Amino acid sequence: MKIILETLRLILREVEESDLEGFFEMDSDPEVARYVGAPPVQHRQESLEIIRFVRSHYILYGMGRWAVVLKETGEFLGWCGVRPMREMKVNGRTDFVDISFRFTRRYWGKGYATEAAKAALDYGFQVLGYTEICSFADIRNVASQRVLEKIGLKRKNEFELEGDTLVWFEKSLLL
């Protein structure tokens, strides 16, 4: 198990195939999937494919989304992390560093997303040396927008992607 970051309550580590049950619980929940632009997963095999996709970014980019686990118990809460986005065009951009997160519903409202995202953002700037980190959220997903604002990203504009209205956020260290 490769630990990337620790916060007061959390460990952010590489995603592993042993996270399958946690991923399946999270991504099969219609409420979790509501704003992610994809339907809930139906089978554990789909979750396993997602885990393998996430792990492929460790090889491609040397980083990616990390499992977020509760330090006290080791419970899988969700994922969070930064990574280059080069696969798709978003808000007119094709090469940017993205921060994002997703958590199992029973862990919502406890500050875990903000705690993990703040640590990941700081890691992206201080350790990985990025000068700009971006994110986007469905316009209806007020909770995610609030997390992005709490960690210091600024709302820049709204845009359309695959029929949904999204909000673009960014933080730049450049003047």
Please provide a written account of the structure:
There is one protein chain. The protein is about 30% helix and about 35% strand. By secondary structure, it is α+β, with helices and mostly antiparallel strands. The protein has one domain (about 5-170): Gcn5-related N-acetyltransferase (GNAT) (Aminopeptidase, 3-Layer(aba) Sandwich). The strands form 2 sheets. A 5-stranded antiparallel sheet has the order 1-2-3-4-5, with helices on both faces. A hairpin with a 2-residue loop joins strand 7 (about 155-160) and strand 8. Helix 1 (about 20-25) crosses helix 3 and helix 4 packs across helix 5 (about 140-150). The longest helix has 18 residues, at about 45-60. The chain is globular, with a radius of gyration of 15 Å.
Brief rundown of the structure:
This protein is α+β, with helices and mostly antiparallel strands and 175 residues long. It contains 5 helices and 8 strands.
Tell me the domain tally: 1
Q: Total helix count?
A: 5
The name CATH uses for the topology is Aminopeptidase
Low-confidence stretches: none
CATH architectural arrangement = 3-Layer(aba) Sandwich
Q: Strand count, sense and closure of the main sheet?
A: 5 strands, antiparallel
Name the CATH superfamily classification: Gcn5-related N-acetyltransferase (GNAT)
Overall 3D shape:
globular
Strand content: 25-35%
| Overall pLDDT level | 95
CATH class: Alpha Beta
